[in-house]
Write a structure and sequence with these properties.
The protein has helices at 21-31, 67-78, and strands spanning 3-5, 12-14, 36-47, 54-60. By secondary structure, the chain is α+β, with helices and mostly antiparallel strands. The protein has one domain. It is globular. The protein has a four-stranded mixed beta sheet. It is built from two helices and four strands. The chain is 28% helix and 31% strand.
C-alpha cells in the first residue's frame, strides 16, 4: 500500500507500513535536496543506511551523484550475505 508524506518540499512515497525513525529522517533530508526530480520512493524492505535509506530510490534533475557516493549509499546495504 502506498502512503505519501507531503510535509517536505518533495513528497516521500512509502510502500511499507512501518519505517525506522532514523530511515525516515534520512528520507526527509533527501526530500529537501534542491535537485530531487519529483519524489523520494521508499521500498518495503527499507532500513537505515549511510545518508540514504537502504531501499530508497530517487531521481535527480541536472545532477549526477558520483559513483563512490552511490556505492556508499547502496552497495553497503546490499552487500554479500
Amino acid at each position: 500500500m502506498e502512503k505519501i508524506v507531503r510535509s517536505e518540499p518533495k513528497p516521500i512515497k512509502l510502500w511499507l507500513d512501518d519505517m525506522e525513525e532514523g530511515a525516515m529522517a534520512q528520507a526527509r533530508n533527501l526530500a529537501n535536496l534542491p535537485f530531487i526530480h519529483s519524489h523520494v520512493a521508499i521500498m518495503p524492505d527499507a532500513h537505515l543506511g549511510y545518508g540514504m535509506p537502504i531501499g530508497g530510490v530517487l531521481a535527480t534533475k541536472d545532477v549526477v551523484i558520483p559513483t563512490d557516493y552511490v556505492i556508499s549509499l547502496v552497495v553497503v546495504g546490499v552487500g554479500p550475505g
